Amino acid sequence: MFSFFIPPGEPPERHRAQVIDRMAALAEIAAGQGLVLAHENEKEIFGDTPGRCADLITSVNSPALRATFDPANFVQCGVRPFSEAYGLLRPHLVYLQVKDALAATGEVVPAGRGDGQVRETLAALRDSGFDGFMSLEPHLAQAGRYGGFSGPEGFILAARSLKLMLNELGIPWR
Questions:
Q1: Number of neighbours of residue 154 by Cβ within 10 angstroms
Q2: Residue 50 CA: distances (Å) to CA of 28, 132, 141, 168
Q3: How far apart are CA 21 and CA 14, in angstroms?
Q4: Across the strands, what pairs with 68?
Q5: Where are the beta strands (DSSP E) in 33-172?
């Protein structure tokens, strides 16, 4: 899930209290249903940078709100995902979306071919005993604010890139 989009040109901090209150209400509903919300660091929302993601999760302070880690979205926000975000978010991380991007253009590329530090993140997750979820979200043919598309050939390319990296790192997959 996403926290809330920030109106263009407005500082995210102006909306912090309202976002925290709304996310806390959603987490309370989720907890009552035995669910866990996984907040994704989508660009242009309150929780798009590592600091605001961590602030959101720690301020809500509910086991029903955890973190999704999307390296490409961090790259597109000018963040080095592993170097600047992983350590801060690892205690809350339950879900990895495998997507990579080029810092210079924001273009989405197969995992390991961009600046998303996907290899470093996968190795650190392996070493920390991560037992959460991972999904492949390549968005290679089209990437936009509300979705993306890879097509059959693009998804096969993305899956091969991920499987190669997992094999090289000795990470079992099925």
A1: 18
A2: 23, 19, 27, 28
A3: 13
A4: 40, 95
A5: 37-40, 65-69, 93-98, 100-101, 108-109, 133-136, 142-144, 147-149
Place of tokens 């920390």: 128
Q: Which of 66, 65, 62, 41 is nearest to 52 (CA)?
A: 41
- pLDDT one-digit tens code per residue, 70-101: 999 999 999 999 999 999 999 999 999 999 99
CA–chain centroid gap for 33, Å, is 24
Judged by DSSP in three states, 15 sits in: helix
pLDDT in tens, 112-157: 999 999 999 999 999 999 999 999 987 766 555 556 656 778 889 9
Cα(132)–Cα(171) distance, rounded to whole angstroms? 13
- Residue 146: CB partners within 8 Å, gap ≥ 6? none
142 conformational bin, left if phi > 0, alpha if psi -120 to 50, beta if neither? beta
E strands in the chain: 37-40, 65-69, 93-98, 100-101, 108-109, 133-136, 142-144, 147-149
Q: CA 155 from chain center: how many Å?
A: 19
Its pTM stands at: 0.92
